[in-house]
Design a protein that fits this description.
Blueprint (H helix, E strand, L loop, with lengths): L2 E7 L13 H20 L3 H8 L6 E8 L8 E11 L3 E10 L2 E11 L1 E3 L7 E3 L4 H7 L3
Antiparallel strand pairs: 1-3, 2-5, 3-4, 4-5, 6-7
Length: 140
């Protein structure tokens, strides 16, 4: 399956009063990492994918995390993001955030390929991931 790694430098605004990353900021970083992974796999920016495929994006429907050690203001960390599974309309994502070669956090996500509802009602619905995109996410 496809993997992408990016560097994230922890900013002051990412931290709580104790000087460590406030946990929701990790999930914001992982959201960006998921988008960067899809961009790297497809060769297209998120805005172009949304426009071309008539979708609203790939919202998260499930998540989990194991926290092993903190990250703090000024830390330069690496986020390794991998596709773990590609289904008809959903896909699994795994993140490993590392500082100085040590794993700080391991997180998982389930996301769906989503579009505005086709029946005219408000809201969104999951739709099939186009096969060319699914193949690229699988690393093919």
């Amino acid at each position: 399956m496809f993997t992408n790694t990016r560097t994230w430098i922890v900013e002051w605004g990412d931290c709580d009063p104790a000087g460590i990353v406030f946990y929701p900021r990790f999930f914001a970083a992982f959201d960006t990492s998921t988008s960067r992974l899809i961009e790297a796999a497809t060769g297209m920016k998120k805005a172009a994918l949304i426009s071309e495929h008539g979708i609203i994006g790939w919202p998260m429907v499930d998540t989990g995390a194991k926290f092993a050690s903190p990250a703090s203001f000024g830390d330069e960390v690496q986020i390794e993001t991998s596709i773990s599974r590609v289904g008809r309309s959903s896909f699994g994502v795994e993140h490993r955030l590392m500082k100085d070669g040590q794993v700080c956090i391991e997180a998982t996500e389930v996301r769906v390929w989503a579009a505005p509802r086709r029946d005219g009602n408000p809201g969104i619905e999951s739709i099939a991931i186009p096969e060319d995109i699914a193949s690229k996410l699988r690393g093919g």
